[in-house]
Amino acid sequence: MSTPTRAFVGRLSELDVFDPLGDKVGRVRDVVVTFSASRARPRAIGLVVEVPGRRRVFVPMTRVTSVEGGQVITTGLVNMRRFEQRPNETLVVAELFERPVQVSTEGGEVVAATVQDIGIEQMGTRGWGVARVAVRLETSRPTRLGLLGRRRGETFVATVEDVRGLRDASEGQGAAKLLETYEDLKPADLAEVIHDLSPQRRAEVAAALGDERLADVIEELPEDDQVEIIAGLEVSRAADVLEAMEPDDAADLLSELPAERREELLQKMEPDEAADLRRLLTYDENTAGGLMTTEPVILGPEASIAEALAVVRRQELSTALATTVFVCRPPLETPTGKFLGIVHIQRLLREPPHNPVGGILDKDVEPLLPTASLGQVTRMLATYDLVGMPVVDEEGHLLGAVTVDDVLDHILPEDWREERHDVVPPSEVTRG
C-alpha cells in the first residue's frame, strides 16, 4: 500500500477511517497540529476521529497508512479514551478555519486574508506538517511588476511560510466552516465539541448559530458554559435564545445570572414567555414546580385523536414531551382550566382517529403539586412507569409537566455532561 504524501484538512474531515481489515473505525472530525518557535512549519500530530457512541478519540498520524480512495486507513491499536485537547495543541477545523491572517505575496506585498483550508503533507521521517494554506483575499491587490492582480473574495493557496498570524487567535473569527463540518451532530454532541473550545471560540460559534440551534445546544452544556454564553450575547439576542429554550431549562439558567441581568432579559422577552419563567423562578429547583416545563402538549377533551397525533408529531417536541397529551378545560395555556387527565401515545395509536381524546382519559395518575419534592416526583414516575407527570395547583389547574429527562438532569452528578464519554477504559496506545 502506498504511503500518503499530502491532503487538505477540509477533505480529510469528510472521510471514514478503517482498520487494516477493512472494518470501519469512525470518521475524521479534525486534525491536531502544534506550533513551535524552532520549526518553520506547524507539525500535524494526529486526527480527531469520531467513533461509535459519538466519542471523539485521538489517532496519531504515525498510525495513518493511507488517505487514498476517499478513506483513511490506520494500523495498530487506537486509544478509545475521549480526546482531550492539550494546551500546546490546536484544532485545524475548530480553531484555524476562518482565522484572519496576513499573506506575503510574490511582489512583497502583505495582504489581509482569511483561512479557508489547511494543507498537510508528509515530511520524510519528520512526520506530517502544515505546508499550505488556502486563503480568501479580504482586500484587492492591484497588478504590479507584471504579476497577476487579485480581487477581494478570491481564493488562492499560499505556502505556510508566507502566512502570518496563523497561530494567533483573533477577534471576530468566523465559525461557518466549523459548523458545516459538524452540521450532522445532534445538539448534545455539538455541545461537547463547543465545550472543548476556548471561551473566545465558544462565543464565536454561539454568534454563528441560529437561535433555535443555539438554544438546543445550550440546554446540553454544563452550567458554567451556559452562563458564559448567555452573558456574552447582546441582551436582545440572549432573550430570543431563552425564549427558544425549554421553559424549565431557561428558568434554571436565569436563576444562575445576577438579578439585574436576569430582570433585563425578562423585560426583553415576550410578556407571555416572561410570565411563565417568572412563575418557574418562584419554585425551589428541587420541587415539581422547579422541574416542570410550562409547555407540555395540552388539548381540550373534544379534540380528535387524529389532531392529537398530529400535535405529538411536531419535530420541535422532545421525545419525552411527545409521549403524553394532557387534557384540560379551556384555557389551554398554563395555568389551564380544570385538568381532566392524560392520554398516552400508545393509546392514541390504538383508537379510531375520529374519536375524541376526552373518551380515553387515564384518570388514575394523581397529579403533583408544585411543592412536591424531587424524591416524590421520582417515586411517582418509577411507580407508574411514566415518562411525564402533571403538575397542578390547589384548584386543579394544570401548571405544567415534569418529564423523566428533567428528573435525570437533577439526580445525576453535576459533572455528568463532562464525564459521559469517559466510561470506556483506555487501550494500550497513548499520545506521545
From TrEMBL:
Instruction: Write down what this protein is called.
Output: Mg/Co/Ni transporter MgtE
Top-level taxonomy: Bacteria, Bacillati, Actinomycetota, Actinomycetes, Micrococcales
**GO cellular-component term (any):** membrane
Q: Which domain of life is it from?
A: Bacteria
What are the residue boundaries of the CBS domain, all occurrences included? 361-419
Give yes or no: UniProt keyword Kinase.
Answer: no
Q: Which UniProt keywords apply?
A: CBS domain
Q: Which GO terms describe its molecular function?
A: magnesium ion transmembrane transporter activity
Q: Which Gene3D superfamilies match?
A: CBS-domain, MgtE N-terminal domain-like
The answer, when asked if rRNA-binding is one of the entry's keywords, is no
Q: Which InterPro entries match?
A: CBS_dom, CBS_dom_sf, Mg_transptr_MgtE_intracell_dom, MgtE_N_sf, MgtE_transporter, PRC-brl_dom, PRC_barrel-like_sf, SH3_actinomycetes
